[in-house]
Structure formats: structure tokens, C-alpha cells
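In response to reviewer comment 3 from the previous cycle, which asked for concrete evidence that the modeling workflow produces usable outputs, we include below a single protein chain processed end to end. The sequence was submitted unchanged, and the resulting C-alpha cells are shown without manual editing.
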Amino acid sequence: MRILLINPPNCGRSIPEERFGIESIKQIFRGEPLCLEVLAGNLRDHDVSILDLKADTRTFDKALSDFRPDMVGFTAVTCEANTVLKLARRTKEVCGAVVAVGGVHASNDPDFFNVYGSVDYVVAGLGKKSFQELVRDLEKGRDITSTSGVAKICHDKPISFEKHEYSREDLLDHVAPDYGLVAGYRDSYVLPTLGLTVGFVCTAFGCPFSCSFCSVGNLTGHRYLTHSADAVIRDISLLPDVPVIRLVDANSFGNPEGSNALCKAIQKSGMTKTFVADARADSVIADPGLFSMWKEIGLRTVIVGFEEVSNARLDQMQKQCTVEKNQEAIGLFHDIGLTVVGDFIVRHDYTPDDFNALEDFILENSVDLPMLSVLTPLPGTDIYKTMKNEIFITDLDYYTLTNAVVPTKMNEEDFYSRFSRMISSFHANGKV
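The workflow returned the following C-alpha cells.
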């Protein structure tokens, strides 16, 4: 089969810009669509191409005409869902290919794509294996009825999936991503502050935690699945000319024993890379020596979800951490010599005092690069369930994590002005 896998274009909208002329924070980094490279790596018996519309200047129609696919697969986060539905409809009009949609939004709100005449199949959760099975069944003309994680759209009733219990076998460690399919886009995947090309490598999938604002854990039923050290070394080796490796995991150090083994394997391999990885604050508190070892093999930057500067709000977020632990972690990371990128969530009910408290925490604790987002009740999260009745903006184009989709406590323009000023100030002085 001829299979075209598509990464949708940048398509989120901005309330600050549209309503108040406040320049929103643009995307500061464009990375490769690793999820599609992973799917493609498991389809090497087919003619597969990846179209990255975040980097490709061709028109969508021309891309379809050039490749003439039998099947088109889309991935989408929530703010891309509307655009993907439009592209799916256009796919049907241009070439009539079978259309499947996966990714975070499809996994957490599959019925959004239950649109007859646009989408044929929805793939939920970790789709490396199930998407291959979907392709196999389509090629053999079999009806898709029992493949777990795959559902055929039913325009007259809700989508349902056969239950699947995820395990390490679903990672298919022995199958590498097909990085070659984005070779033509590689120069677009750059870390702007350093001017260096970045490659994505996955060491784990899923998350055992249940933070109320996050839906990652739902993708694997809150199982934390780790790749073997050999598989990770193989994938890094497939990117020989890429100096910076971004480990794209919810928590790259969630399995300390595995992280220790991987660190030693990288050291033994002799490869020299700069690593950027996600970590929880409690991980470095539990084992600072692990991070010191990683620093020796090239770990430069850790991205840490601190989220809030109030213990009461951290408890509301089910973060299972405290402000005091976050402060301790920042100190440990700096002692080790690591740059700290801190993720913080600005609630819709922030007051000027809350903004001041957040800014004070960031400055007093010397967070190297603060990344601020607006609390957004995304489908599939616990806060979506509790805040659903408060949501007054339902257009998913605005679910970019920089728009308040529930009413703000402050005057709306004042809220966005303060939010924008803080981000501009931090980014002007930040580093990675």
C-alpha cells in the first residue's frame, strides 16, 4: 500500500492577538513528528511517506497528487483537531484514500473524529502495533472488528474500542523509527537559541501519575513502559549528524534502574551528544547521583513541570509534589550543573498577586528558562470533567495552552497583558 502520514500545520488561534492586539508567544521550536516516524518504521513492507506540514511549503492538494496514497494517516493534538478534520475531508475529495486519525486528541476524544465522509478509522493510545494491524487487515480486505486500539467510525453511534492492556511488548523495541522519511526536513528541526539541529528519541511511553491537567497517562492506562537501552542506543545512532538529542518522554527518569543502565550504555558506546530530557522534581531528590552521571555523558538541560507555586494548588492538580521539593530540586539541578527549563501553569483565576508570586518564585529560585502556559481543560483530563460547565470557548483552535477557555478573574485584557509581559521578559533573558 501507498501510505502517507501527515503532521498537521501550525493552526492554533490566539485570543490575545485577535481581541487585544497583544502579540502572542509564537512557537519557539519545531520538532520532528516522531510519532509518525515510529509508525513508519513498522511499515517497511509498504511505500510510506511523511508529509510535515509544519515544515513543507507545498500545498496539501499537490502533496496528495504527487504521492497518490491508498491510505492517509493523521496525528493531532487538540488545537489541531479541527484542521485535521478539514484535511481529512479534503483527502476524500482529492484522492478518496482511506483516512485514519491518531494522536493525543483522537485517543482522548475519539468521537470528535466520528464524521462520516471524512474519517474511516480512529487509532487510540500507543498505535505502533495497532496501526500496522489496521494496514494489514485493510490490505487483506478484512473487516476491522477486533483490533484493540482501532475503531471504525460509526456516524450513528459513539465510537468504541476493544479494551487493551498495554505492556512493554507494545513498544516493539526491535523496530526502529524511520528517520530517513524526514531527512528533507531535518534542517527545520533546530533549537533556535543554540542554532543546533535537534533529533527526537523516545526512551519511554506513558506515565504512572494522574496529574489533573494531563492526559498522557490515559494513553497507556497509566502504565509506564520503557524501551531497552539497546533500542535507545540504536535510535540515537540513526541520527549521526544530529548534535542535540531531545528525549521525548513524559519523564525520562521514571525508571531509575533503566535510566542508570541507559546512561552506562551511552558512556560505553562512546557517542558524544548533548541531551535534553524531562524530569520530575522528586526524581533528582531521590537520586541526585543519577543526574550527575547523566551530566557526564552530555545531559545539558532538564525540563521540569513545577506547575504552581502554591501547595494548595499543587494538591488540586494531583501533582504529588510540594513547593519545597521543587525548590530543593532546582538547587540540586544547579549544583550538578544542569540548565533548568521550568513549566508553570497560569490559572484562569489568577489575580495580580498570583502573578507576582509566580514571578518572585521564578526569580528567587533562578529558573533558567520559565515556560508559562494557561490552564486548559483538555478532553481526557480530570480538570476537563470538573470544569466542563465553566468552559465558554469550545472552538478547539484556541486550545493552544495560551488561551483561557474559561472566564478569567482579572479583566481579560489585563490578564493577557501580564501573561505576555512575563513570557517576553523571561524569554529575553532565558537560556537552554
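The first helix runs from residue 15 to 20. We consider this sufficient to address the reviewer's concern, and the full set will be provided in the supplementary archive.
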